[in-house]
Amino acid sequence: MTDSATLTSPEIWANIDERLRSGDEDRWLSSRYAAKPERHALIALYALAYELAKVRLVVSEPALGAIRFQWWRDALEELEMGKTPRAHEVVGAVADMLAEGRYSVDTLQDLVDRFEDAFGDEDRGQQPETLLAQTAASVLDSAHDWQANIADLAPRVAALRRGETAGDIASMPKMPSTLRPALAHFRLRRLYVRRGRPGNLAKRLCVMRAIMSGRV
Question: How many helical (H) and strand (E) elements, i.e. helices and strands, does the chain have?
């Protein structure tokens, strides 16, 4: 892929947003409630995670997977070095958010490494759900005290989304309002337990309730 000196345009943001809506609607729904600058940061982060997660759907050979993960690793390293972002919409969006200090290259590199480990072991349960959720929460409130709750909920909710069992989830305290656009989709666990794959309207209402009440 070639390089591009252009910043992320509104059209590109719209493209990324629509792809995330199709590929990871749960997180996308929560992000709708963030102010536009923070929403962009969440969307870029989730879009990167989606690109990494779908490697397993595109290739099956370990060597080919390693090439794809290394591409992202190299792209992030180039951003850290101040080089022009590669001509990939998600790379450009991430570059914009790094320039704003929304998250660090080290954190994103850690995401790449952990997704690659999960790919190599053919174990989706190893995907870095906790790191992803904690990073998203920090975009909205870097001083929050919900780290332990996120660590408990994130992998369990991910398991339920995959149709697996997650064990009993303890009652959670009310979620701070600052974190809700990053974590409100955790409440969807209630639908996944009861109904399997819920409909679009049910999911939207469920996320809205989490935004309004703070209960996940």
Answer: 12, 0
Radius of gyration of the chain (CA): 17
**pLDDT mean over 60-65:** 93
What are the angstrom distances between the C-alpha of 198 and each of 6, 70, 81, 160? 40, 36, 44, 12
What local confidence, expressed as pLDDT, does residue 121 receive? 94
DSSP code of residue 4: -
Q: Which residue pairs, CB below 8 angstroms and at least 24 apart, start in 56-62?
A: 56/119, 56/122, 56/124, 62/119, 62/120
- To the question of pTM greater than 0.90 for the whole model, the response is yes
> Which position has the token pair 């101040």?
82
Cβ–Cβ < 8 Å for 211, 184: yes
User: d(Cα 154, Cα 152) in Å, to the nearest integer?
Assistant: 6
Token pair for residue 83? 């080089």
Q: What confidence tier does 195 reach under pLDDT thresholds 50, 70, 90?
A: low
Mean pLDDT of 14-37: 96
List phi, psi (to 5°) of 34.
-90, 150
Q: What percent of the chain has pLDDT over 70?
A: 96
Taking a C-beta distance cutoff of 8 angstroms, is the pair 187, 215 a contact?
yes
